[in-house]
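Predict the 3D structure for this chain.
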Amino acid sequence: QVQLVESGGGLVQAGGSLELSCAASGRIRIINTMGWYRQAPGKQRDLVAVVTRSGTTNYADSVQGRFTISRDNAKNTVYLQMNSLKLEDTAVYYCAADHEYTVGGARRVWGQGTQVTVSS
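Done. Predicted structure below.
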């Protein structure tokens, strides 16, 4: 079993910054892609940013240039630095990790979510 624990959410004013972190623990074999998704009330869960084990990143257009995703493979931890936050960034942010539990077998693991609220 692999668990993800997120931290760093909270309330911030528009234009401010927050950093989220997500640490994986448990019986880890190999964690491949890690990333962040978000879900606003009444909306679907959308990709925010992902990073591969080798460091390749991909961002949603809405956060490109404002958010930065990074990871520490030794710590099985992924980070999301969020700058210039906007009201529309308000959502529950979920961490996700693709755990390769055996050769050729992988499973996506989700964190419990952390609330990010941007106020005017």
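The CA atoms of residues 46 and 58 lie 13 Å apart.
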